[in-house]
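Dock zinc ion; give full complex structure.
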Amino acid sequence: MSATNEPLQKENSAAVKEVLAANASYAASFGVKGTLALPPARRFAILTCMDARLDPAKFAGLSEGDAHVVRNAGGRASDDAIRSLVISHKLLGTREWFVIHHTDCGMQLFTDDIMRNLLSRSLKTAQIDENGWRNTEETGGSQEARFIAFLPFASLEESVVEDVLRIRNHPLVSPEIPVYGYIYDVKTGRLQEVARATEAGKARIGQAVTVAESSVAS
Ligand SMILES: [Zn+2]
């Protein structure tokens, strides 16, 4: 086993070459970032979509070491997103969370049924046109998608409210963490609050009962 970063594959793809070149120049000026602490310095976390047009570091003004950013398709409050957020607070001290969905999200373009049907017949990239999604060739897919909830949504604002509420009501989430709901506009780069979501995600301070209080009460 080689301990160097020499790639095992002799012929790198263009993407691999580009990433490694960019990384070499990033690492060359890494400076004091090597001394950053593990817990996020600004003590908040963002849950957002994986959409390539969103750059949370830029749109939210983050530097290395500042905040946790949890990303998945849609920025949905999936079990796995909640797993990360629970770790973010419980072990790494974040105290405020943002749920940020965005306009023109791909999650509004399909349903579980459409996705399962496409995948049952082909694993290759599908295409969308005015008649909806279709496979370009049907080379054999898998029924396994029946067991996955892909978490698409029809209403952008509702999806933010729904996810903030799911996080707010999760038994492993401290009631003291405020959860804010926002929509990022891919046309302008602006964040717009979803007031209903932020309202629903308000911290419930005072409901947390300390161990000492609860033992006195019982
Ligand atoms: Zn998206």
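Observed: Residues 5 and 22 are 14 Å apart (CA to CA).
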